[in-house]
Structure of Phosphoglycerate mutase:
Amino acid sequence: MTKTLYLMRHGQTRLNVQGRVQGAFDSPLTELGIEQATKARAYFEKMEIHFDLVLSSTQERASDTAELVAGQVPIRYKFLKEMDFGEFEAKEESTLPSFREGATSFEDLLVPFGGEDIRRVGQRVYDGLREVLSQVGEDETILAVSHGAAMWGFIIQIGASIPAGVRFGNCAICKLIFSPEEDFVLEAVIDPLSD
């Protein structure tokens, strides 16, 4: 009773271009972001992947990307929202605290500034996806468009290993297999924008 989940990051936004933090803050897709979503759609079409269910976070950049990729309005869920960066929202990315030595995420560094702990974000995404996927039929294919830190938190939560240096760029896709018995298994990280 497996299901295939494509967990994807949104396309480029105005704040991405400006090098600003946009966690809980929202920002529209740029023309390039729209083009990236169109390329992701072409990737899925080339691979003959069709979606039985389309989800996105409630944030505009994710729901717009999902609609462009899947050709349908997604069901929007708050559990897919981006990590809240607290006082750093909409500020230059260079103002963010540095990771601790050996860390691959902000961990709990943003909590004193009103932000979220990456582990809580990962737990939120995990719990929500597990609940939704437990309710869909066998052998269904699901697209869920979310955000970079939310995806990273989810990957930490499921204990999957990502090769060193891999980041979730715009429209990056994590292909996962889900079954209630095996939970989530990461099969691949895909860059649909590479030629």
